[in-house]
Amino acid sequence: MTLSTLTKHEAKTRSDLLEVQRYDIEVDTTGLLEGEVWRSTSTIAFTCSAPGATTFVDVAMDVVRATLNGEDVDVSAAAGGRLPLPALAADNVLVVEASTTNTATGEGILRTVDPTDKLVYVWTSLEPDEARRVWACFDQPDLKAPHRFVVTAPSSWLVTSNGAPESVEDAEADDARVWTFPDTPRLSTYVVVVNAGPFHEVRQQHDGYDLGFYCRQSLVPILERDLDEMVTLTRQGLAFFGERFGYPFPQERYDQVFVPNLGGAMENWGCVTYGDGQLFRTPPTHAQRAVRAEFIFHEMAHMWFGDLVTMQWWDDLWLNEAFASWAANWGMAGASEFTEQWATFLAAFKRTAYEMDMSPARHPIRSDVPDVSSAMSNFDAITYVKGQSVLHQLVAYIGEDAFVEGLRDYFSRYAFSNTRLDDLMDCYSRASGRDLSAWTKAWLDEAGTDVISLVDGELVVETTDDQEPRPHRLDVAVFDASGDALVPVGRSSHEVTGRRTPIDLPEGDLRLVNAGDYTFAAVKPDPTSLRLMLERVQQLDDPLDRALVAATAGQLLLLGDVAPRDVSSALTRALSTETSPALVEPFLGQALQVADRWAPADESPGLLAALADAVVGLVDVPDARQAALRTLAASASTDEHWSVLQAAADRATDLDLAWRMAVRRAELGDYDEDVVRRLLESDPDPDAGMRRLAVLAARPDVEAKEEVWRAFFVDYAVPASRETLVLGSTFWRPGQAELLAPFAHRYLEELHTLKGGLLNQGLTIRAMYPLGAGDESFLAAAEAAADDTSLIAYARNQLRANSFVLGRVLQARRL
């Protein structure tokens, strides 16, 4: 079935016409225990402001029967995911019975069979307009209504929805139970949920909340291992956001459900779902724990920003995602053990926004979205990462007190309703006493990254496409480098307006522009500062300053102003003394990427070996040991490196490390099938087959590459998680470019036939772009494909962004 996409005009017409009173939705999941059938009956009560008018209801299913105000509706007219409705009364009740067998692709719903115990799990994830795939509804964000669910499920299953069940009773049919849930608050159709399966459940009562955690049975030991930490983070987040927003989460029940094969997470009201890749199979490193904490805080922030107050239309998608991302870092830094989260964000994640915003894929944070399919092309680093960076700049621009006051005003005014950007900015203007109209236009309606340099006592701003410079509130830190240490001389704040802003600074040798990382801009240091930054980064006391040096080096790679060898050497030096858990792994990751992917082929082995030498020194640092061993496994080049790795793997019986070593050996031509077989037999992870695929992906062997290719593009057998991205980078080894050239061009062909939901498609598109191995021929083909309108908009944008980076990689290899 080819589905119609809802246009902005259609949505406005329908919302002007209708007001939805409530949804009563009956769901039958019993057909999923051994089959593929999901059934639902949706009863919608709504009013019409112009009796006699007509409209349509969204239902991308097989419609069995429908009635409007007791009269049959012609279901044969259903097409494109829409059922036309006859003339409406002032008050209406629509009942639609429907079913679907499309339960294996992750389009709104996914049925998964755990390979270890054959147990079946089902989840729904309905953003942006996937609710129509599981029940009939008016599927747009501004037609909010209470939802009441009654779910029939096999008797061995648990069911979770947006609140606590009112009752669970035996069904009339054998071996099934009926779960009845109370009315939700007024919610948009995309943030309600039904999950079902034989989940393991843990409940704890804390601070007036009933906290639930769920996972599949094969991952119970992993959930139990990390439960205390996740409970602590949940309590910290609910308390912090409730107090800072002046609006405690208004529901006692708060569930977090870890489900198989979900690429990311979804902010369903009171019942967040996460891909269970967040239940790390090996005890997680500090960075992995921080990533999971960011997920927990991000999805929780959505309870306020997105669920409680929702954008009217998808052109304000950034209001949801950028705010939740910013709030996650803000909350982690202010309420959890991850107090240096802003340094981690700068060192590990902000680079992705610069890459896209400097590329031809750049777009304004806020842009016109003519239809829902266009909205999905903006689920990217500009919306999430640049968006939260811009909010961070706004906090610096108006002050945190005014920012918080504006948020409290916003939530109290608009709870359970829909808003536009102007509503939020008006709240900030009232709180700060500043006219923010020019700030809003400059930051949200213009694409591209400003480049700031310090020249002869002036901050000079270069812009994209000759735009007017944005207003920037930033700090400059000055250091004296005349002795053996970098000595701070002064740190000052400045509001930058126009192309040149004179500033007064104390005398010094090293000048860090954008110290504290308050604004979103690339920085071009003066030659002396650049040399000192790269040579003496390890002497900077503040983790944010060290993160800024690493981030600036990454920007300069994109600008073509620094050679990979210089960045690699600087990061290797920094790692020799780095002690902050917030920075060790981001620095390791960036150093590995520069030495492996950016460096020319004749320099890469030497840079990797130097990195591995430095990493050996971190193996004995407790907080860095695990991450150091993983990086060493990816860069091992000498017998000493392998000796250190083998000793560590033997001492701890570390399966994760053993798999990583097998990947590196396979890349170097030392594939041992017996080792892989033994690892597979001894690994209890239900997704252990993916570790075997990673070993095959690394091999310089056509047959091995073909098997991985089939898993991605034919069998759709790669579970959606962050490991999907790792598997892709393992496949595209830079040293195997000649072998991989035919696969690179096949990638462009596969983009036309991708299946599954947006999140899973997006992961595959990003993971399998040949960033490490593409050549000039592929780059030209990819740039041409980005103009192919038969591809989905998301794929075209990712092609533009990744091709920009690949072009800069190829250019950097010539420096």
From TrEMBL:
<dbReference type="Pfam" id="PF11838">
    <property type="entry name" value="ERAP1_C"/>
</dbReference>
<dbReference type="Pfam" id="PF01433">
    <property type="entry name" value="Peptidase_M1"/>
</dbReference>
<dbReference type="InterPro" id="IPR024571">
    <property type="entry name" value="ERAP1-like_C_dom"/>
</dbReference>
<keyword id="KW-0862">Zinc</keyword>
<dbReference type="InterPro" id="IPR050344">
    <property type="entry name" value="Peptidase_M1_aminopeptidases"/>
</dbReference>
<keyword id="KW-0482">Metalloprotease</keyword>
<dbReference type="InterPro" id="IPR014782">
    <property type="entry name" value="Peptidase_M1_dom"/>
</dbReference>
<feature type="domain" description="Peptidase M1 membrane alanine aminopeptidase">
    <location>
        <begin position="234"/>
        <end position="443"/>
    </location>
</feature>
<keyword id="KW-0645">Protease</keyword>
<dbReference type="Pfam" id="PF17900">
    <property type="entry name" value="Peptidase_M1_N"/>
</dbReference>
<keyword id="KW-0031">Aminopeptidase</keyword>
<feature type="domain" description="ERAP1-like C-terminal">
    <location>
        <begin position="512"/>
        <end position="794"/>
    </location>
</feature>
<comment type="similarity">
    <text>Belongs to the peptidase M1 family.</text>
</comment>
<keyword id="KW-0378">Hydrolase</keyword>
<feature type="domain" description="Aminopeptidase N-like N-terminal">
    <location>
        <begin position="118"/>
        <end position="191"/>
    </location>
</feature>
<dbReference type="InterPro" id="IPR045357">
    <property type="entry name" value="Aminopeptidase_N-like_N"/>
</dbReference>
<dbReference type="InterPro" id="IPR001930">
    <property type="entry name" value="Peptidase_M1"/>
</dbReference>
<dbReference type="InterPro" id="IPR012778">
    <property type="entry name" value="Pept_M1_aminopeptidase"/>
</dbReference>
<dbReference type="InterPro" id="IPR027268">
    <property type="entry name" value="Peptidase_M4/M1_CTD_sf"/>
</dbReference>
<protein>
    <recommendedName>
        <fullName>Aminopeptidase N</fullName>
        <ecNumber>3.4.11.2</ecNumber>
    </recommendedName>
</protein>
<dbReference type="InterPro" id="IPR042097">
    <property type="entry name" value="Aminopeptidase_N-like_N_sf"/>
</dbReference>
<dbReference type="GO" id="GO:0016285">
    <property type="term" value="F:alanyl aminopeptidase activity"/>
</dbReference>
<keyword id="KW-0479">Metal-binding</keyword>
